[in-house]
């Protein structure tokens, strides 16, 4: 499924409003020296109105609820350093979007060359979805329960519809809408002190509090039984899907302390960074109303529902020391580099329901520890007047030192399983060579070479039990024995090594004062080493995470080519034209299954025209195309092809956007300025799936039966997002200090994603609780008025 680009790309309306508000009018008549030496302050107040509720429209701008909202902005600066004062002290207070819940306030005071102190606060609101649920419990909490009167839902196979496709009117009556959202509050303090002209120290601290919820799905647990149930034939329903409001009750503290030194030929920084993340919950719990018995939906259980639990993100700590610096070896040769060492730990207790852990856990917590190391070094040299060269190296290591353990458990379907936790580590080494050559005063050439090596391994491998040939503690079974034969720390990694070589060349030319041109080409080849002895230590039985011969696109061998070009033409003093082209092609030449190839292209056109001294107009157009071809298989076998059937899939994304802008000033004897904006975008995603046959894997049998059987071949309906925006603002200058802005903003989104059909009441799968979530579409007409007063 494709994310709806039209929604995710929606800019904050408040920012849009601010962008069309005019700059403060020059204080005509003020003393020229005061204008140059004193800051211009302003205070702005206003009101706007949103007519309709729409979480899609208000997703990031805080305007998802209908009604009046405030416009509040200010910028005030002062201190003896301004004007004709001899002091070096300055202060400032800035506030933006103060009338909404995406507000920000910054205040600082500094004595230049001596010290500084700053405070800042930001609030962010994110509307996620309008979500329907029968569960009782507050959004942002971690306990959700069904009322006993809701009754059970039978998952026993019956004539369609059944299960959640056949909820009773009483059960439907318990559904209610919740606006799922998160709020984020960030408070920061900055301190700085200049010890002398070379040394200074700076401290930054940020405290972040997050509340609300995000949506998450979970399967129900067949091991967690209801006690005292009186419903005949009742048996706890397993592996049925519940969508939950996962609480985001988090706090994060980030601390940075840095000591800086700067000399005539060198500079140096030593710093410490610390971060502590705390989740104030450890789990979210929810009722399980499902029964595998055939009692009708709505039948009363006669006892409390079984309560399942899902863990929330664990609290963790990160500490890091950093060193960086540079030295001018000669007037034309410079060396810069850095080193950092970090330690990430996580040791929260497991959320353990005894029904899922027969015999208990091997340990009560993860004892997680990851060591990160980074080093970089870069040398640049102005070899000649026309030629500069550079060379650099980067090293990054993620060393996962978490211990390995064997975990025996029951899965959600009550099956006994065994898995082994094997911590994955990796290191990436990169080297670069580059140069810039001035061919003539109008032509320049850049060339470069990059090398990248990635190595992956596991730090811990459990000892093998001679009697079974499996890791100590593993359960012996015919289906999983072949997955636990590893005796090397590399066998748990499918691609232990990858090497990539990349070549880049870019050319720029100024053909004339009015015309300039640029073009570039890049070629890279990533060669991946596939481990034939790979096994997945996490898998519990024959159902692997990746099918045999499947390669993830970010791991597989790949050749990539990129071509780009651009031209800018100043046709006249009033007309400017520009065009940019870009295209890529990826070939995954060693992947038997997985992504086979990908292509992308884009075209951007811009034009700006100065109609008159007081009137300007601009237009733009953009087209984008992306495609991806892959092959895979049904079935789940990571060491062979037994039982697998093949299919191929083609994905195509197409996008286009058009826009225009017009500004006209100086009306009504110079008092009125007008600005108009309009834009239109259309994004479409298309999937097509077909049978795919190899010598080892037969193709799938394409089903064309509607209903629960569905269609497993052919094309899906297009996923579309169509967005239209328009705004008109008028700014009237009452006098040299005061102005009033009137504005109108229109936004209309039409989106269609067939995936949302699955969420609807009566249309879900038989074991999926409906949520009635809709593909976001809306129409909003926003009006606003704001008054700005400027002063010195």
UniProtKB/TrEMBL annotation:
InterPro entries in the record, alphabetically?
Beta-barrel_TonB_sf, Decahaem-assoc_OM_MtrB/PioB
Decide whether keyword Magnesium is in the record: no
Could you say which residues form the signal peptide? Answer: 1-27
State the superkingdom.
Bacteria
Q: Which residues form a coiled coil?
A: none
Q: What is this protein called?
A: MtrB/PioB family decaheme-associated outer membrane protein
The protein's UniProt keywords, in alphabetical order, are: Cell outer membrane, Membrane, Signal
Q: Where in the cell is it found?
A: Cell outer membrane
Matching entries from Gene3D superfamilies are given as: TonB-dependent receptor, beta-barrel domain (2.40.170.20)
């Amino acid at each position: 499924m494709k994310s709806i680009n039209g929604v995710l790309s929606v800019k904050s309306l408040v920012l849009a409003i601010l962008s069309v508000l005019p700059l403060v009018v020059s204080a005509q008549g003020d003393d020229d020296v005061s204008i140059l030496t004193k800051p211009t302050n302003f205070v702005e107040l206003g009101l706007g109105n949103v007519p309709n509720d729409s979480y899609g429209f208000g997703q990031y701008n805080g305007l998802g609820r209908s009604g009046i909202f405030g416009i509040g902005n200010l910028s005030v600066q002062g201190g003896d350093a301004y004007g004709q004062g001899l002091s070096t002290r300055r202060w400032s207070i800035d506030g933006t979007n103060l009338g909404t819940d995406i507000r920000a306030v910054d205040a600082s005071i500094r004595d230049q060359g001596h010290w500084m102190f700053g405070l800042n606060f930001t609030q962010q609101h994110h509307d996620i979805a309008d979500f329907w649920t029968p569960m009782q419990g507050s959004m942002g909490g971690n306990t959700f329960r069904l009322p006993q009167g809701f009754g059970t839902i039978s998952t026993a196979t019956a004539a369609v519809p059944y299960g959640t496709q056949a909820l009773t009117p009483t059960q439907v009556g318990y559904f209610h809408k919740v606006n799922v959202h998160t709020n984020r509050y960030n408070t920061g303090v900055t301190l700085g002190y200049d010890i002398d002209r070379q040394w200074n120290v700076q401290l930054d601290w940020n405290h972040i509090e997050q509340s609300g919820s995000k949506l998450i799905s979970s399967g129900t647990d067949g091991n967690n039984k209801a006690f005292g149930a009186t419903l005949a034939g009742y048996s706890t329903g397993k592996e049925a899907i519940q969508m939950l409001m996962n609480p985001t009750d988090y706090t994060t503290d980030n601390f940075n302390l840095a000591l800086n030194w700067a000399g005539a030929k060198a500079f140096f920084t030593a710093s410490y960074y610390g971060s502590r993340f705390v989740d104030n919950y450890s789990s979210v719990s929810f009722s399980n109303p499902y029964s595998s018995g055939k009692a009708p939906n709505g039948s009363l259980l006669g006892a409390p529902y079984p309560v399942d639990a899902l863990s929330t993100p664990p609290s963790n700590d990160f500490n890091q020391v950093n060193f960086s610096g540079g030295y001018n070896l000669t007037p034309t040769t410079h060396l810069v580099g850095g080193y950092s060492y970090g330690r990430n730990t996580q040791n929260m207790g497991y959320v353990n329901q005894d029904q899922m852990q027969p015999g208990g856990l091997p340990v009560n917590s993860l004892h997680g520890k990851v060591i990160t190391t980074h080093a970089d070094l870069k040398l640049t040299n102005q070899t000649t007047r026309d030629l500069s060269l550079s060379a650099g190296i980067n090293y990054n290591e993620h060393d996962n030192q978490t211990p390995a353990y064997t975990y025996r458990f029951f899965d959600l379907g009550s099956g006994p399983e065994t898995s082994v936790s094997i911590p994955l580590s990796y290191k990436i080494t990169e080297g670069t060579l580059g140069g810039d050559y001035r061919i003539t005063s109008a032509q320049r050439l850049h060339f470069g070479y990059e090398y990248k090596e990635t190595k992956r391994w596991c730090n811990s491998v459990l000892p093998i039990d001679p009697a079974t040939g499996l890791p100590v503690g593993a359960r012996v079974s015919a289906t999983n024995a072949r997955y636990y034969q590893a005796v090397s720390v590399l066998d748990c990694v499918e691609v232990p090594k990858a090497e990539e070589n990349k070549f880049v060349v870019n050319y720029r030319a100024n053909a004339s004062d009015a015309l300039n041109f640029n073009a570039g080409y890049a070629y890279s080849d990533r060669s991946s080493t596939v481990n034939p002895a790979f096994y997945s230590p996490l898998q519990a039985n024959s159902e692997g995470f990746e099918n045999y011969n499947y390669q993830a696109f970010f791991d597989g061998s790949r050749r990539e080519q990129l071509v780009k070009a651009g031209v800018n033409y100043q046709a006249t003093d009033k007309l400017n034209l520009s065009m940019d082209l870009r295209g890529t092609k990826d070939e995954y030449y060693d992947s038997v299954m997985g992504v086979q190839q990908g292509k992308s292209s884009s075209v951007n056109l811009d034009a700006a025209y100065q109609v008159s001294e007081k009137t300007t107009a601009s237009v733009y157009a953009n087209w984008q195309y992306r495609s991806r071809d892959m092959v895979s298989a049904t079935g789940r076998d990571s060491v062979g092809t037994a039982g697998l059937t093949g299919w191929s899939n083609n994905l195509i994304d197409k996008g286009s956007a058009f826009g225009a802008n017009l500004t006209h000033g100086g009306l009504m004897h110079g008092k009125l300025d007008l600005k108009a904006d309009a834009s239109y975008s259309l994004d479409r995603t298309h999937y097509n799936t077909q049978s795919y046959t190899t010598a080892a894997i037969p193709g799938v049998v394409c089903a064309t039966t509607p209903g629960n059987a569905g269609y497993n071949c052919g094309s899906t309906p297009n996923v579309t997002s169509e967005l239209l925006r328009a705004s008109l603002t008028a700014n009237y200058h009452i006098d040299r200090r005061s102005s009033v802005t009137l504005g109108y903003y229109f936004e209309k989104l039409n989106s269609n994603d067939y995936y949302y059909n699955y969420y609807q009441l009566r249309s879900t799968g038989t074991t999926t609780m409906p949520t009635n979530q809709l593909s976001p579409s809306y129409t909003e007409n926003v009006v606003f008025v704001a008054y700005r007063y400027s002063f010195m």
